[in-house]
Amino acid sequence: MKTDLQIKADVTAELAWDAACNAAAIGVAVKEGVVTLSGQVDTFLQKRAVDQAVRRVSGVRGVALDLEVRLAPGDHRSDTDIAQAAVAALRWHSVVPQDKVRVEVDDGWVTLTGEVDWPYQRASAEQCIQPLTGVRGVTNQVAIASRAAPGDIQSQIRDALGRHAAREARHIEVAVDGGVVTLTGKVGSLSEHEAAVGTAFAARGVTRVVDRLEVTG
């Protein structure tokens, strides 16, 4: 098992290696495998890139993003401009159902509401907003319509976990209450954790995932 100093060194190296991250402006602290990032980034998309880079590093058990999105002077946009751009981006995204997602913008922070049929549609709605100029953050409150029985949802998730990672699936318990899935158990790495939660979200009828998985690696 890596020490906190080793994890910090690996995270620092990964940020420096990834061209999408401005490593010089980011501070890294590690305690018991949990990485805290502080400092400033130029765009919200860069903030997401930093998060993803850290999650690739083995030994990381959790990530706290204390990063401020400080836009360059030329990247500032009015909330009206951002809202219009967001609506257009959603309209042109083939995966997001037309007129199912609403947009609100407050000081560059975009909030998405509405209801879609699938988790990937909810995720796609957020992903098409992240790169827009002037966006400082995104809150995704889009709901998922539940149209499957709890027993069917549980079977789908168990089968998918077995196909994707049989070893990890043996240590994960899946409980379903309506469209809410609760995952408990242990996984060996943050990437395995992300995969398990993503698998649960991908099941038809899932409206929310309660993550109680423990990363032991």
Please characterize this protein's 3D structure:
The chain has 217 residues and is of the alpha/beta class. Helices cover 38% and strands 29% of the residues. It has seven helices and ten strands. It has helices at 4-17, 44-55, 79-92, 119-129, 150-164, 166-169, 190-202; strands at residues 26-31, 34-41, 62-69, 101-106, 109-116, 137-140, 143-144, 172-177, 180-187, 208-215. The strands form three sheets. Strands 4, 5, 6 and 7 form a four-stranded mixed beta sheet that branches. It has a three-stranded mixed beta sheet with strand order 1-2-3. The chain starts with a helix and ends with a strand. The mean pLDDT is 89.
- Rg measurement, Å: 19 Å
Structural class assignment: alpha/beta
Helical fraction: 25-40%
For the biggest sheet, the summary is: 4 strands, mixed
Low-pLDDT stretches: none
| Number of DSSP E strands | 10
Task: Calculate the mean pLDDT score and round it.
Answer: 89
Q: What form results from the Cα inertia axes?
A: flat
Helix-strand string: HEEHEHEEHEEHHEEHE
Distance between the termini: 7 Å
Proportion in β-strands:
25-35%
DSSP helical segment count: 7
